[in-house]
Amino acid sequence: MSETKLNSPPADGISAVKFAPNSSQFLLVSSWDCTVRLYDVNDNFLRMKYMHSTPVLDCCFQVCGHIVLSMCEIVLVLKMLKNTKKNDRA
After folding, report:
1. How far does the chain reach from its first CA to its final CA, in angstroms?
2. Which domains are seen in the chain, by residue range?
3. How far apart are CA 87 and CA 90, in angstroms?
4. Which of 10, 32, 33, 86 is 20 to 30 A from 69 via CA?
5. Closest Cα partner for 79 from 13, 64, 41?
6. What letter would DSSP give residue 81?
7. pLDDT at position 80 over 70
8. What does the DSSP 8-state code read for residue 22?
9. Contact between residue 37 and residue 67 where contact means Cβ atoms under 8 Å apart
10. Residues 20-26: contacts with CB within 8 Å, 24+ apart?
């Protein structure tokens, strides 16, 4: 088993960590710093970062490139993951 320190970690406590279904390459992380981050673990690269107005309590992958987020306002948000390249900014 190997250990990796991710680049651009959340600034506050992590509330959830989920690997993509059928792959350990992509890691979804929600945090009390009001962000959700998608990492490419193989390249140690932050692929996407979503900002919200309140802390994100949970996150999960859904089919067809979507993620579901749960915030403090008891709201569920469905987001479409965009196809980004390694050189794109998060």
Report:
1. 28
2. 14-80 (2.40.10.480)
3. 9
4. 86
5. 64
6. P
7. no
8. T
9. no
10. 20/61, 21/61, 26/61
Q: Are 61 and 54 in contact (CB under 8 A)?
A: no
Asked if residues 43 and 32 have their Cβ atoms less than 8 Å apart, the reply is no
The model carries a pTM of 0.78
How many other β-carbons are positioned within 10 Å of the β-carbon of residue 24? 9
Q: What pLDDT, on the 0 to 100 scale, is given for residue 30?
A: 94
Residue type, 78: L
Provide the strand spans (E) within 1-90. Answer: 14-19, 26-31, 35-40, 45-51, 56-62, 66-71, 76-80
